[in-house]
Amino acid sequence: MIDFYFHPTPDPAKVALMLEETGLEYELRPVDTKKGEQHLDAFLKVNPNGKVPAIVDRAGPGGRETRVFDSSAILLYLAEKTGQYLGAATDRPELLSWLFFVSSGVGPFSGQSVHFQHAAPEKLPYAINRFRREAERHYRVLDEQLAGREYLVGETYTIADMSAWGWIARAAFVRPGTDDPLAPFANLKRWFTEIDARPAAIRARAVGTGHAFKQEMDEQARHALFPSNYPAA
C-alpha cells in the first residue's frame, strides 16, 4: 500500500496518472495547500520541503517504509518498483533527459507563467512576458520532439510522457486568452489528446474530486502558498 499525499495541481496529477496506469494500491492523503497543511509537522516528516506530491511506500525496499518526494523522483521510483513505463534500456539517457527537461523547464516556467498571470497581486508586464514566452518556448521544444513520433522517448509511452502531461493539461492557464492554447503546437496537441483520453488519465483527473479542497485565494491562501513573501518578523 502507498500513501499518496495529493493536491489537485500538475505535479501530483503526474503521480496520480502513474498510480492509475500501474494499478498499484494506494490510499489518498489530501493535503490542502491553500489551508497551509503542507507546512504541518506531520507532513514535513514526509517531505521536508513542504510540497506535494509525496508518497510513503509501506512496503519499500527490503520491506521498509519508504518516503519519496518530488514528482520526478516518485515517477522514477514507481517505474523501477514495477518495471513499467521505463522504455527500452537503450533509451534510458533520453528518458532521463526529457524527464528532467520537464522538471527543470516546463514545470517551473509554466508555474511562474500561471503565477504572474493569475495569482500575483500586481500584473507586471515584464514578468508575464518573460515566463509566458519561456513556457511557450518549452512547448515548442516538445512539439519539435514529437514531430513524426508518437511519444517523447523511443517507441513506447513512458514516465516522461506522464510528467509532461501533468503540466500540458494546464495549458489554458499558462496561455490564457486563447480558445485553443495548444493550437500553435500541432504535434504536442495530438500527443496530449491521445494521452488525455487514456482510461488511466480519465481516472487520474478524478482523483481527489470527492475532497472539499479550499478554493478561495484569500489572505490565508496567499500566506500558505507563498510563505517566502511573508517573512517572519
From TrEMBL:
Start and end residues of each GST N-terminal domain: 1-86
CDD domains, A to Z: GST_N_Ure2p_like
Recorded GO MF terms: transferase activity
Keyword Transmembrane helix appears in the UniProt entry: no
Keywords: Transferase
InterPro entries the UniProt entry points to: Glutathione-S-Trfase_C-like, Glutathione-S-Trfase_C_sf, Glutathione_S-Trfase, Glutathione_S-Trfase_N, Thioredoxin-like_sf
Keyword presence, Ubl conjugation: no
Record domain GST C-terminal: where: 88-224
PROSITE patterns noted in UniProt: GST_CTER, GST_NTER
Name the record gives this protein: Glutathione S-transferase domain
Organism whose genome encodes this protein: Paraburkholderia phytofirmans (strain DSM 17436 / LMG 22146 / PsJN) (Burkholderia phytofirmans)
